[in-house]
TrEMBL record, chains A, B, C:
Gene Ontology cellular-component annotations: membrane
Transmembrane segments: none
Cited CDD domains: LbH_LpxD (cd03352)
Keywords for the protein's UniProt record, in alphabetical order: Acyltransferase, Lipid A biosynthesis, Lipid biosynthesis, Lipid metabolism, Transferase
Gene Ontology terms describing biological process: lipid A biosynthetic process
Gene3D superfamilies according to UniProt: Hexapeptide repeat proteins
GO MF annotations in UniProt: N-acyltransferase activity
Protein name (Swiss-Prot/TrEMBL): UDP-3-O-[3-hydroxymyristoyl] glucosamine N-acyltransferase
Biased composition, class Pro residues, residue ranges: 320-330
Coiled coil: none
SUPFAM superfamilies listed in its UniProt record: Trimeric LpxA-like enzymes (SSF51161)
Length: 347, 347, 347
């Protein structure tokens, strides 16, 4: 269930008690706190991030009331909408949630699950069938959310939305899946997470997506179906990763990724662009190396440089982009190849 | 013990039951599943990665039978070898392992070990003498291995090879050491792993190597003796890191590293090359900064730029490469200096 | 209490027993091992890092005795100071600490704390009031410190300094906070650490600082007040991060950061410089792309490139630097925005 019930109260009462102003005729009785993309009549929908400004009109249309941060509320798209506008809306949200009525339901675990030793499954977590939870994983600990108050003080925002893990999901050892705020963090059917992966609060990880070890997804990210993510990837908050996207290991994603795209680097860009940029960089650096004779700029070789590298620490595909006959350098493919059994590796 | 025993069966039976074709006269009775670099008579050796194609001839020479993925089997080096060729060889391997006969032996722990509270030592793990296992570490959880089937469905590949940790190893708190597939993941004598390190399945970490916190090594990587790895390093799967190599913190290694090399960056290259590339990058960017008068390209200063930087957030060695009198910027050395006691740091 | 008491002994005895030489009239009775920045009469202060050479004169002035590594002791600033000089001073320190007298005090936990299930609080840890310790976090495990001996052998340096966590701190699930060596690792009042953060031994994390998930701080780092650090940041050992500094996600910090600075990249530099460097890189690469007509260098457009990108995987702010009207690309701000409740994210 998305949304946190509160004791029903007229908006005028709430504003009188918690501060802020009612603008453009905002009114009604509030019964629940609900994310803005699903809020309807009787719901109060926080608007605290630029990202969700486009959702505001829809929420109003469904009869919801906005609790908007003052700064955002000044924007043209919002300025004429009915809203409860508050200079510290997140702080107010925290106050409301603290008296919210989200029962601390015991976790529910489906049939055929394997829960590793030391794994911690907290209240408000629902786990489907045939799910693997690795040893020591922590599912449903509060998301990392703090509100700033008037005087710069910080206050924890209660995280009451829980976690839903669908059927056939694999969660590796020592992963952390944070509890959502108003609605659940979701890991969809068949998704596979390697060890030490972190999923922030309110994320929605698509079906059959694969995330390699030590990757971290910040809060409120939506990952599509069949996405493949290498190890140690980072994804900034509130982004959308399209279906079937491939994200090379160690990428830092700071913007939306289109469906089917293959990206690499930090900030993550289309993989070919990243490789070309690197190739240029090392080409230029080689040309200017003070100890080597330097070709005039107009005579520098095209990408990729054909000159043999003499560095002691070479790597497969030292010339960028790597020749087609070897595994390509960046290899989001690696997360597929990881699913292969080893043909060696023991000594 | 490397390899997983199965009920003895003629190869013809296996192919009839699991699909695929026998090519170039492949035959024999299969009694074990064994990694390709050690497989001999009576063994079935999976060939699922390009990386191990060179091992195939040796395995055949020792009397082993190959289970080769169709795609790989088309390669010239393989095309004429006897092999059981299957379009979904990994899936078949998973099927075989599910009825394999690898007893779930209780873990064995040597004398003088210190096992931290909350550490999880799973079956098929063997730990030598005087080993430290940090609190909450997870040793021997199944490696992250999934096979794709005909219809795109995924299936977990059983991980039955266990883990061997030799004498005098140090494993930090909250590390994950994954269980090998057919043979053990190995951490050799005297290796030291800091907190939150992840070691993938089938890795072989060399004696006295040091790996700083939050580094992750993907599956089937061989790390030599005395290797030093900074924090948050990532190493892609199936690579070989030579003896005594030094890998700067946060490097992303996507190719083999020669013995004794010092590398940095992502993709990791020889450290000097990386530094030179960065120096060029910032030099060019400075020259083009729209708010500053710009020198003609032919007059730009050589590397390193001698111009004072005016940025508010400087870092030691802001001019790249750093002058010889300060600790070099990237400092894989840091992981040595970490072993020094603090001379300060308390307030 | 900073410092580890030992059985009182004249320095001459210690040198006779552990090796090394007394130089420039070093003498006195040693009663404690204390970090160099606070050592006074009766204290032995290890000098093992270049970073603390400036502290040596002060320590001598307060009446302390230095235990200096031979290599460092050769430096001009040190050469004339009284000191116990040893070729393997860290090894000697380890020997002394092994017979030190640091009682293994049970952890102390203040009022109103919430300790998550599976969290491990080890001896010598002191926790203030209203502190949250996430599930599975490990507080006070020995820091990662090894000394090299004469023959290349390694020895663990006892870590006896403990951990102090002040009031109102939040430690996320599966964090590791390492125990200090001679004095405590400190997390100051109101600091907030997200999940899977690693804090090395002897660090001092300033009040109200915020560190996002999966960041790692190496040993002996001092972080100021109100610092904001994105996710997956790495900070090398022995550095100082000034008050109010902002460090973008995934940055690799290898030098001191000035108060109030905003840095990004690896190595981390002032954020604008990093963005400008990236812009140049991709601009150059685009110009040289072999499949596109190429403008002469003298006609290349200024930064940022105004040409539309055609890559399939775009990211918000694909043109670098991002236009001012969208959240800037790197967004150390994200760690503030994380403290906002989600306005969406559930499907």
């Amino acid at each position: 269930m998305t949304g946190v019930p509160i004791a029903p109260r007229p908006l005028t009462d709430l504003a009188a008690r918690h501060g802020g102003v009612l603008r453009n005729g905002a009114s009604g009785v509030v019964r629940r706190l609900v994310p803005i993309d699903r809020a309807a009549a009787g719901d109060l929908a926080p608007l605290l991030s630029l990202r969700y400004v486009p959702d505001a009109v829809g929420a109003i249309g469904r009869g919801a009331v906005l609790l908007a941060n003052e700064e955002l509320a000044a924007r043209d798209e919002i300025a004429n909408l009915p809203a409860w506008v508050h200079p510290h809306a997140a702080w107010t949200l925290a106050e409301l949630l603290e008296v919210g009525d989200a029962p601390e339901d015991e976790p529910v675990i489906g049939e055929g699950c394997r829960i590793g030793p030391g794994a911690v499954i907290l209240p408000r977590v629902t786990i489907g069938a045939r799910v693997t939870i690795g040893a020591g994983a922590v599912i449903g600990a509060p998301g990392f959310g703090f509100a700033l108050g008037r005087d710069g003080s910080m206050r924890e925002i209660p995280q009451l939305g829980g976690v839903i893990i669908e059927d056939d999901v694999h969660i590796g050892p020592l992963c952390t899946i944070a509890c959502g705020t108003l609605g659940p963090t979701i890991i969809r059917r068949g998704a596979k997470l390697d060890a030490q992966v972190h999923i922030g609060h309110n994320c929605d990880i698509g079906a059959s997506s694969i995330i390699a070890a030590q990757s971290g997804i910040a809060g409120s990210v939506t990952v599509g179906r069949g996405v493949m993510m290498g190890g140690q990837v980072g994804v900034a908050d509130h982004l959308r990763i399209g279906d079937g996207a491939r994200i090379a290991a160690k990428s830092g994603v700071i913007g939306d990724i289109a469906a089917g795209a293959t990206v690499a680097g930090y900030p993550a860009v289309e993989r070919h662009r990243w490789l070309r940029g690197l190739a240029e960089l090392y080409r230029i650096a080689s040309n200017r190396a003070p100890t080597s004779a330097r070709a005039p700029e107009s005579l520098t070789p095209p990408v990729p440089s054909a000159r043999p590298t003499t560095v002691p620490g070479t790597w497969r595909g030292a010339t960028i982009p790597p020749p087609p006959s070897v595994p390509p350098g960046v290899r989001p493919e690696a997360i597929i190849r990881r699913s292969e059994p080893p043909s060696e590796g023991e000594a």
